[in-house]
Amino acid sequence: MADFLRVMIIDDDAEMRGNVAEMLIAEGQEVVACSDHGSAAAELARAEQPALVFVGIEQPLPRHLQTIQFLCGLLVDSWVIAYSSLTEITVFQQVVRAGGRILLELPLDAATLRRALDAASSQLKSSSMTPPGRAGRIISVIGQKGGIGKTALSVNLAAALAHDTKSAVLIVDFDTSFGDVGLALDVESPTTVAGAASDIGRMDAAEFRASITAHESGAFVLSAPGHVGEWLHVLPDDLEALVTTAATLFDYVVVDTPGAFNDAVASAVAVADNLLVVTSMELTSAKNTSMLLGILIAEGYPAAGSVVVANHTWADTGLRITDLAPVLDRDSIWDVPFDAGMRMASQVGKPLVLLDPESLTSRSIRALAQRLANDPDHIERRKLLRAEAPPRRPGFRQRLRSALTRANLAQAS
After folding, report:
1. Per CATH, is 137-412 categorized as 3.40.50.300?
2. What is the pLDDT of residues 185-216, one digit of tens each?
3. Which end of the chain is more exposed for a tag (fewer CB within 10 A), N or C?
4. CA separation (Å) from 258 to 42, 74, 141, 201, 317?
5. What is this structure's pTM?
6. Interacting residues of 297 by C-beta distance below 8 A, sequence separation 6+
7. Mind listing the pLDDT tens digit for each residue in 322-347?
């Protein structure tokens, strides 16, 4: 049975509120408040501070989704679980974007409710037991375009950190469409990111270590699932919990991300200690990178903890580093030279830093690994300290997603 939780129920249907309350009480939970979708719900939630809120959602959806969004902003350490007769995937996606953790299908049964309570109880307990500090650093590799070599950079960086610095390194594949980290390292991970994220609240350190696969470089690998459907029930908060938990077990957690912005990318940015913002030497990539950097700065992400990495995926595109610097408004850009061997290394599943450690490309990536190991708070080589940077405002992930969406819409119009 789930641990004892203080629960609130919000539903416009008084009979349904009563039925859900009876089921929760039968499961040993304390129902501290019941309300419809209105101002009374806000006052009760503020007064009672429940650990868990069940919200009934039906048409009109916008009003009920606003309730979820409000609750998630008010009760930042609580769980919101929605239930509905509307079970389309689009409804589930809207619930998740509003901040809900789970969408349960009506009619509710005891077994389904018990599983939801167990998940909430486990995650809330894990959050309360997580120490305020952690040893490892989270390095997220992002870029607003596909085909710019993010995965190649991620796997080579993870291999260099593990091999050269003898550190404990985990690489995590957040690509929710076509994750290739496992393929690039020729590693089959029995546990995927989706599986680990779903189970992280119920796994201890030994179980987590046993579930991941070691690469010959010394790095450990957590691959993306082979089927996109496995991602459907993984929430952004699950991904963040996975990575922050992993950072208590590893010196470095390298997060590889997809080229198209989504919730996984927003989560990777939100938890990152260091951001590697990758661009290729192409105008389209430079333009997208400029937009992304502007949004990161506006949202308060510390420039001293990020670096632009110019990855030469072609021998000559006509652009030079000196052309990029003023466009991206950066005093320094980390240059990764072109090497035809990089593609071959990916084909054979072995990082270039191991195949040809003295090539110019390998030396650049290994130097970046050393910089991350020795001076991570000044990765961009500026004098600004992280402590001096403006703090990120609450809801960073949600605001970043909204800002990028607005920018993309403005560009399309």
Report:
1. yes
2. 988 877 888 888 888 767 766 677 777 888 88
3. C
4. 37, 31, 9, 25, 23
5. 0.64
6. 303
7. 788 788 887 778 999 999 999 888 88
